[in-house]
Design the sequence.
């Protein structure tokens, strides 16, 4: 058993930002464990631009954004165990990991979980049909193309208009493939508006809403898919079925936080976010264990991942140096059109302004988000539109702290 | 042309186990498989159940081989270090007429010589399996039955047979069989030919095609598809036994069972299909699986499905196994109609076939150095931390995890690429190591696995396939 003050599980954008923040808040004995051969996580395969506009004030590619944080990690001399897979995290903060040197156990004072997320697979969709080669989750195809340098197909259908699906529609087109269609089962896209414009419209790729892949055809390699419109209950409308010949189907049908370690540790999770229940410092219900980034909830922009991870890193450092905030917790819950809100609970006496993050359940026009405690408005903000694909934020400023006397509810009203 | 004493057509669990049984003797044996790997037909897509033996009609070959087969199967699984468990089972009735079927099955089981059967009340059944439906009225409790991983059993049986001298030819799709003076010349679609004195037809859903090639097609394979849903390990704890519903004429109904790897499996349906390769799933049948699975165990969370698949049973009219020396063509052995409980019977079938050969005059001289055991391909995952560290010290590739859902190391994958029968494609690695078998279904690990296959099988990345010719994954180097 070896000892470190703070162990960070995962060296993607969340893990790196958390490590830097922990260090900068006074804990220098921080280590990052990452399963890959370099820091950066999924950013390494995101070679498109659009990263860093909010956080760094410049538009970077994924690897460039990762490089900014990697440099910060290196400047601080933070130890990174690469090619190291964490097998277990316990509530008493023993982290077990394996690499080519063997299996190691680290006793930490605080742990930050930053494992990111994975893609929903074809199996989870239960799409009927055959099981040929040529069906990829969009991120797997992205890795094969951008990191390994191999093309995965020539005629492509994409199911799901989340951001990875949209980005991959453009990427496949740029490499010479013909993207026949992007199908979205919902009546609206789950991706960012800028991606719909830049990745589909600019390349004349049709987006079919309320449409799904109903069947997969082909024995050895994919030969085609049957697409069909769906009714309001998402059931296939038989008479709208139509066949599209293609050799590749990319699935961008949702991201799932990789919480196997969290669940294994017995840490309580939120059924809606599929991530841990946390407070304003990203501390889970296991004292001294923090979570941030896509393992906590799926983010739309990496910039917000970095912000959240900085809170987690700072929270972990303060936990190590000062111990816990002993004030009471109040619950924060979503109501009405707000699907979820994070953190799920906050201290009655937070140390600084508290940001609440939420997502809506369906697209809206002009809305007002309000966080209330009883009848008292703690924070409120107006948005010209709100979409499930975009995260929203409310800030409870310090002058409102005296009003945090009971549970908080976040709602929206259409205007 | 290569000459063998015995040719076996088809490397499913039946052909594989016959190959292993024959490898005990001083005979040259060649196993011919049309796919890029063994266990690619019905063997890879069935319930994986070792059936107790109460179901087959007394006096049939199925009844005889099932009764004899259970212990033989567990013994072989033990020697071959294949995941297996005697978890027992329950056949559940939900209504009065089904209660009578339970009594009938119990009596049939006694007649078949099965031990450890008892009829229990619905309440007792729920005591044993708390998640069982409160609508269960009566159940047959079976204690001798169990579960086994069917494809790992076959891979291990073929590997063990190969270690004992049997040859495996893959991608050998038989296109012609010529009867010659003493035996057969068997041709493949790609022009390869082999000669053998005896030819054992274990071609599953293609068995009638092979029988026709020698002019002795007295049965027709009726391919019947069974669709399944496999659920995440989070659901694997719903039941500890295999839960059946009362059987109908179509089959044993929809079961709910834990698997050897801790997942939950539910299925199969039973629909006649065009041919043995009609392995597509359908929306309607998957919905039926879900509905009927929930009938037995209402708490199953079907949002946790990680994959669904279809297997095709190679049934024949009459319903019994057809295992016999051809009346018309001496030296041609039919092993056909091997549907449920075929997996349970694979070893007893193999021994039965050896007897047929013996009666036909094949001299069976045992090899002195036959070794019926195979090393445990999952040994690493079962070790203590100290033992693992010792292994990693000698071979650091065991420290590198490739598949995180199933915790499979690079070392285990490399072993699967070098151990008989070697994996040559992604599905081959998956069935040997479980890499890609978990909840992300290969999303993260497949590119690493492809690199390992390319490196160890000496092929280009673009030549790596999912499951053989035509199932290419990559189109070109950018």
Sequence:
């Amino acid at each position: 058993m070896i000892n470190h003050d703070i162990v960070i599980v995962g060296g993607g954008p969340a893990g790196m930002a958390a490590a830097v923040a922990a260090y900068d808040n006074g804990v220098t004995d921080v280590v990052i464990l990452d399963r890959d051969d370099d820091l950066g996580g999924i950013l390494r395969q995101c070679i498109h631009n659009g990263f860093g506009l909010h956080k760094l004030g410049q538009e970077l590619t994924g690897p460039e954004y990762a490089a900014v944080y990697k440099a910060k990690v290196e400047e601080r001399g933070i130890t990174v165990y690469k090619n190291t897979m964490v097998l277990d995290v316990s509530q008493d903060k023993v982290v077990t990991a394996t690499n080519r040197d063997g299996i190691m156990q680290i006793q930490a004072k605080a742990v930050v979980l930053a494992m990111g997320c994975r893609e929903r697979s074809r199996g989870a969709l239960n799409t009927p049909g055959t099981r040929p080669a040529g069906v990829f989750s969009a991120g797997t195809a992205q890795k094969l193309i951008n990191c390994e340098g191999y093309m995965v197909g020539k005629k492509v259908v994409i199911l799901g208009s989340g951001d990875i699906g949209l980005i991959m529609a453009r990427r496949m087109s740029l490499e010479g493939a013909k993207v026949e269609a992007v199908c979205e089962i919902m009546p609206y896209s789950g991706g960012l508006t800028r991606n719909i414009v830049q990745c589909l419209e600019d390349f004349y790729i049709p987006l079919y809403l309320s449409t799904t892949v109903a069947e997969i055809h082909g024995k050895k390699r994919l030969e085609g898919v049957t697409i069909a419109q769906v009714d309001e209950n998402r059931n296939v409308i038989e008479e709208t079925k139509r066949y599209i010949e293609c050799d590749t189907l990319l699935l961008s049908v949702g991201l799932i936080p990789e919480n196997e370690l969290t669940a294994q540790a017995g840490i309580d999770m939120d059924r809606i976010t599929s991530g841990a229940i946390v407070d304003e410092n990203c501390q889970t219900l296991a004292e001294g264990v923090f979570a941030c980034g896509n393992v906590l909830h799926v983010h739309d922009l990496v910039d917000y991942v970095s912000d959240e991870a900085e809170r987690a890193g700072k929270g972990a450092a303060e936990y190590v140096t000062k111990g816990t905030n002993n004030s009471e917790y109040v619950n924060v819950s979503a109501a009405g059109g707000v699907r979820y809100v994070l953190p799920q609970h906050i201290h009655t006496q937070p140390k600084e302004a508290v940001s609440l993050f939420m997502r809506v359940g369906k697209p809206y026009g002009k809305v007002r988000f309000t966080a209330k405690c009883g009848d008292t408005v703690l924070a409120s903000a107006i948005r010209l539109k709100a979409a499930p694909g975009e995260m929203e934020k409310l800030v409870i400023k310090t002058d409102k702290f005296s009003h945090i006397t009971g549970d908080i509810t976040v709602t929206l009203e259409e205007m | 042309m290569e000459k063998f004493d015995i040719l076996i057509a088809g490397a499913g669990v039946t052909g594989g186990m016959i190959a292993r049984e024959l490898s005990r003797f001083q005979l040259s044996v060649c196993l011919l498989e049309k796919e890029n790997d063994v266990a690619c037909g019905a063997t890879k897509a069935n319930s994986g159940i070792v059936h107790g033996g109460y179901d087959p009609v007394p006096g049939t070959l199925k009844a005889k081989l099932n009764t004899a087969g259970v212990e033989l199967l567990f013994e072989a699984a033990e020697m071959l270090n294949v995941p297996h468990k005697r978890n027992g089972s329950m056949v559940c009735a939900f209504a009065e007429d089904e209660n009578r079927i339970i009594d009938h099955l119990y009596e049939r089981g006694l007649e078949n010589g099965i031990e450890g059967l008892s009829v229990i009340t619905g309440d007792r059944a729920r005591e044993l399996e708390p998640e069982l439906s409160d609508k269960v009225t009566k159940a047959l409790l079976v204690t001798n039955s169990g579960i086994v991983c069917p494809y790992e059993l076959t891979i291990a049986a073929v590997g063990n047979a190969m270690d004992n001298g049997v040859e495996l030819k893959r991608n050998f799709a038989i296109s012609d069989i010529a009867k010659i003076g003493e035996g057969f010349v068997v041709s493949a679609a790609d022009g390869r030919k082999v000669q053998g004195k005896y030819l054992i037809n274990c071609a599953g859903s293609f068995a009638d095609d092979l029988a026709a090639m020698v002019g002795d097609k007295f049965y027709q394979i009726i391919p019947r598809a069974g669709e399944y849903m496999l659920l995440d390990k989070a659901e694997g704890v719903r039941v500890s036994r295999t839960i059946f519903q009362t059987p109908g004429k179509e089959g044993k109904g929809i079961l709910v069972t834990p698997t050897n790897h801790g997942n939950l499996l539910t299925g199969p349906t039973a629909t006649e299909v065009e041919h043995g390769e009609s392995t597509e799933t359908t929306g309607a049948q998957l919905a039926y699986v879900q509905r009927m699975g929930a009938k037995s165990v209402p708490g199953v969370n079907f949002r946790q499905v990680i994959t669904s698949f279809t297997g095709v049973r190679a049934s024949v009219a009459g319903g019994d196994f057809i295992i016999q020396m051809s009346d018309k063509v001496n030296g041609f052995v039919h092993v056909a109609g091997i549907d449920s409980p075929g997996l349970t019977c694979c070893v007893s079938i193999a021994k039965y076939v050896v007897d047929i050969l013996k009666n036909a005059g094949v001299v069976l001289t045992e090899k002195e150095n036959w070794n019926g055991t195979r090393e445990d391909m999952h040994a690493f995952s079962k070790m203590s931390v100290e033992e693992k560290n010792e292994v990693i010290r000698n071979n650091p590739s065991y420290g590198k995890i490739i598949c995180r859902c199933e915790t499979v190391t690079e070392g285990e994958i490399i072993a699967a690429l070098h151990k008989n029968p070697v994996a040559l494609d992604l599905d081959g690695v998956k069935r040997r190591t479980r890499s890609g078998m978990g909840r992300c279904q290969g999303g993260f690990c497949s590119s690493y696995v492809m690199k390992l296959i390319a490196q160890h099988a000496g092929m280009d990345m673009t030549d790596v396939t999912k499951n053989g010719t035509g199932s290419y994954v990559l189109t070109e180097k950018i």
Remarks:
- Chain A has eight helices and 28 strands.
- The first strand of chain A starts at residue 2 and ends at 9.
